[in-house]
Amino acid sequence: MIFLDEKHAVEEYCKIVPATINVKTIAHNLSMQCRFNGACANFYSVAEHSVILAILFKEESIALQRLALFHDAHEAYTGDIVRPVKQRIGELEIAHLQNDLDKVIFAKMGITATTFNKKVVKERDDFLLQVECYYLFTAFQSTDILNYPMISYAIEKTGTLMADLNPRDAERRFLETYDKLFDKSL
Fold first, then answer.
1. Taking a C-beta distance cutoff of 8 angstroms, is the pair 69, 53 a contact?
2. Which residue among 105, 169, 170, 172 is buried most deeply as judged by most CB within 10 Å?
3. How far apart are the first and last CA of the chain?
4. Are 10 and 153 in contact (CB under 8 A)?
């Protein structure tokens, strides 16, 4: 069973169609999920992470910013599956499910996700992961992570953005970013 929101569920992921996708549901569900399976010192939601990633593309195309904001939107329906678990149970199967969901979500949101753009967003997402580890886990603060120019840049750009937002504020920030990037009112 995949729960779409507090009122709706579907038996199988293949039954999620554009009509069942709603930006408010995505924002809410992502704001309620703590990154790193909750193992970090402070609550840090997938929604806040997605907004920060979009901000890291601020000086680049609107297409990249939109894709960055919605790069983990499938997790609104699958949950945030941590990388070690993905590796253990089969990354290909999970990637297939997430890609299927991404297609539906991107179609609904009008996001064009070229292979190149997905690669660029994935690379920046991996850098942001390192920044998040630096800020959220003291074990990383003694490493040489700051010697990598792109990571230093990302820390500099995001240092004041990681605000330990509570779920309600993370949801609001996600929706505000959506409004700005898609020039729509909710």
1. yes
2. 170
3. 28
4. no
Say how many domains are in the chain.
1
pLDDT (tens, 9 = 90+) of the chain, 186 residues, equals 455 555 555 555 556 677 778 899 999 999 999 988 888 778 899 999 999 999 989 888 999 999 999 999 999 988 888 777 877 877 777 788 888 899 999 999 999 898 999 999 999 998 888 888 877 776 555 555 555 565 566 666 655 566 678 999 999 999 999 999 998 654
> CB of 1 within 8 A of CB of 11?
yes
Segment holding 146, helix H or strand E: none
Burial 28-37 (b: 16+ CB within 10 A, else e): bbbbbbbbbe
Helix spans in the chain (H)? 23-31, 46-56, 62-70, 75-78, 83-89, 91-109, 115-136, 149-158, 167-182
Residue 161 structural domain: 2-182
The domain that holds 114 is classified in CATH as: 1.10.3210.10
Cβ neighbours around 158 below 10 Å, total:
20
CA 56-163-111 angle, 5° bins = 40
